[in-house]
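Subgroup meeting minutes
Present: P.N., E.W., G.H.
Scribe: E.W.

1. P.N. recapped why we're keeping a running log of single-chain structure predictions: easier to compare across weeks, and new members can see raw inputs and outputs side by side.
2. G.H. added today's entry (140 aa).
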Amino acid sequence: MAQELTRFSVAMPKDLLDRFDELVERRGTAKNRSEAVRDLVREALIEEECAAPDTKVFGSLTIAYDHHANDLQDKLHGIQHHYCDAVVSTMHVHLDAHFCLEVIVLKGENALVQEIANMILGCKGVKNGRLVVTRVDEHM
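Output recorded in log:
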């Protein structure tokens, strides 16, 4: 059942509104200002909720690494096997003769997901990476 919408007005400088309208346009024909504002509010609320250490979250950790680095793959696999209840899935992509990209989907309390990500990102040979967390809330 769809929720009733409440209208409100927002005042902002014209140049900021112009840039916002450009963002809305880039997002496609199914988006309008109202939907874009709702998306931004949802995103801010989820980010705030995910910040608590005990919040149940889902995370995607994307890393790029040199697969020739000493025993790196063994370390990565060891961490993932140690936390197998929190590791949902992985996807491995060969970028070239030396580098790989891996996406690791994690679930659990935010503190645990962050801990696992930090352990993986701290491994020698991991060139860069980023963890993105979210949660599912039926009220969003």
